[in-house]
Structure formats: C-alpha cells, structure tokens
Task: structure prediction
Amino acid sequence: MSIAEAHDMPVARELLIPPSPPRAPKTMTALGRMLAMRESILGTWSQRAYEEDIIQGRFFGRSSFILNTPDAIRHVLVDNYENYTRTPAGLRVLRPILGEGLLIAEGRAWKYQRRTLAPAFTPRAVTTLIPHMLAATDDTIVKLKAASNAPVDLREAMQRMTLEIAGRTMFSFGMDRHGAALRDFVMEYGARLARPHFLDLLLPLNWPSPQDFSRARFRKRWTAFVGMLMAERRAAGKNEGAPPNDLFDLMGAARDPETGEAFTDEQLGDQVATMILAGHETTATALFWSLYLLSLDPVTQEQVAAEVQGATVNGALDLDRLKFTRAVVDETMRLYPPAFLIARAAAGPDTIAGMPVRKNDVILIAPWLLHRHEKLWRDPNAFVPSRFMTGTPPDRFAYLPFGVGARVCIGAHFALVEATLALAKMIGAFRVGLLDKAPVMPLGVVTTQPDRSPRFAITPR
Result:
C-alpha cells in the first residue's frame, strides 16, 4: 500500500487549504535565489520540488540534491549518517546561540552529549515535568480570561507561555524577571543574525564573514545571560535528598555511561541554551499554527473541545485520551514543520539512489517539501487531522517534524506532550476566532514562522 493510499480518507466536507507561499518560477538566477533566501527559503522552491523524487542542481559551485524519497532520506540520515555533517552556513548561524550543544555537535562530542542527556528525556523523566507544563498553561489561561474582551496576540501569548514552561522545567522558577530579556535575545538574533548572507554561504567556515563579528558580540552577551540564570538556579538549591525535579537537576546529575564524566560548566551552559531555545521557540510556533488552523476550521475546533471535555477526569486531563488533539498537533507540524530544512554536506564520496555524490556536495531534506509532496500525501496542502487517526502511520521517512535516525530530536516526546496538553487546555477554555481575515503566510527563518501576528478573539467556554 502506498503512502497516498494509506492516507486516502473520506472527508465529507470541503477541505481547508491554509495559506502558503507562492511557488517559485521554474528557473531562478543565483542572485534571485539568494535574494529570495534572505526573505524566506520557502519561496525558493518551484512546483517540481513538490512532484519529483530527487532534484539535482548547483549551489555555489557544488552539486546539490533535494531528496524527496523515503529510501534516499533513510540512506543519508540513518544508514550512512556519519558521512553527512552540518553545512558551514548552518554552523555559522546556529553556533553563536547554541554553542557546542547537542543540536550542532558532531562526532565523538555529539555521541558523548547524547549518551549523557538521554536519561533526562525518557518518557518517565518527562512525566515528572508535566506539573510544570500544566501550571504555566493554567496561569496563561487565567491571564487571557482577564483580557478576553480585547483582541489577543496569541503568537506572543504562546511564546510567553512556552518560555515560562521552559523556565520552570529547566530551573523550577518562573521567567517573570528574565522572560523579557530572553525574548529580546531571541528576537534580536532572529531579526539580525539568523538569516544567511551571501558571504556566509561562500566563505570557508574558518574565514569569518562580516556577520560573524556581530554574532561573536552577541554570543558574549548571550552566554553571560545564560550563566546568570544557572547561577541563580544554583543559589536557590534544592531540598537535600530530594530527587531531581527539573532539567537542570537532571542534566547536572547526568554522567556519561561509558566514562562517568559530567558536563563542564561551559558544556552545561550550551545544553541549557539549546534546550530553552529549541524547546520554547519551536513549541510556541507549533501552538500558534495549531490555533490559527483551528480558528479557520471551527468544526475541527469543536471536535477538539468535545474530546477535551471527555478527557477531563476529576478536573485533570488524561493525556492518553487526547488522541484527536494529538492528531491536530501532528497535522499542524506536517503543514508547518518547525524545522523546515535539514541541510547536510557530504564529508566524503557516496552514492544516493544511483547518483554519485562528491565530497562537500550539499544534501537538502526539506520537511516543508516532503510533508506536502504530491507523491506521498493525499490532499497534501489540506488540513486533515484525521489522516493521523487511521491506525496506519505515515512512512517514518516521509514525516520528519523532529528529524529521524540517530540525530532525531532528543526532546521530541517532551515537545509533543507539552503541545498536546497546552492545546487541549487552550481549546477547552476558549473558543478561538480570527479578527484579522488577511492570510498569514509562513516564512522559513530558523523555524517556520508566521509573517505577522494576527489578532484573535477568544471567548471563554
């Protein structure tokens, strides 16, 4: 059975096709593509990228391959993953804000970090953090109810909420005092430094580009801020003999199972930065898009609300009963994958789907394309949460909201639990509608972000 057949579900009503960027023309000059990338990578792909299995091209003098077949993706991300490393441009953009944390570490450093951090992200460990998630979500709902008669910026509200969850799960304290500063860091980096410039793509990694000097200045301020958060958490301490109750405890207690080594302070700071940024920003984005889609689809929104009511037992949500809510989250991340592009450079020669790959060739696996590919999905541009309720999951290499293989996102379970519970709480508390009827367009800049923050109307249920 093909993936398309497996997801060929009968749908009785008109399908919702949410806004998406126009497809690029069939041919683009190198300058035109570069200018388009500065705005959003999503606008650089033509219709053939949504139809063909593999697209070979040239990228600054090197061969490039866009992979849209599960077998080829499996080869790069699983079977021969050690031959494919992050691209120099990707490292330039991410290293100043994530350091040498798990997300961008390579080789032995990555294996050490992955082994050491893994116990902190098991389902059992995540369960101990759920009270932090629920408390921050409940606080957000109380604040929104107090302002429910006025137009609401739910994007900002979700950013504040997920940042609060990140702070509480990481440090056991709220982000009232530090949240504004942390958001300023994130917004500054995204607006000024996260978009690659021409020289970022052209120069070797050991040759600094003009942007790299600005990124270095940012990193100095950023690492000092993270160090301050860690010092405050250590000063607060914990009850003697108490089990770990936040991620900082879990990561501080973590030891490499092979060597017994703990993280140094610098390494721990990079992990803290990675977990806070990768966790709060991507989950906030997924929640925004979920609320946006449900506001465009009131029937599905009421299905979620009915499920939430049935899943509430003695005033508490039963996560296992939120299957349709989870399907809404899954479908949202299909249409708006937080990580829209996985770029790799070949460390040595290889063969992919019979095509020769040379050292330094660029391999692109774009969840944005893969999740909307016409050979892999029925009604690929439509919002159909029920496609995740058929009992037949999509091909593991056709649906990559968290990547796949050895480098799959270590926080995937954490993020899914957080997003499902938070969405259920929000829709259980409010009817959500759009006041701003102009379409909201996704932009590919670090994450799949909205081009603006529309105003919503929320009505308590």
Residues 1-11 have pLDDT under 50 and may be disordered. The CA atoms of residues 182 and 225 lie 8 Å apart.
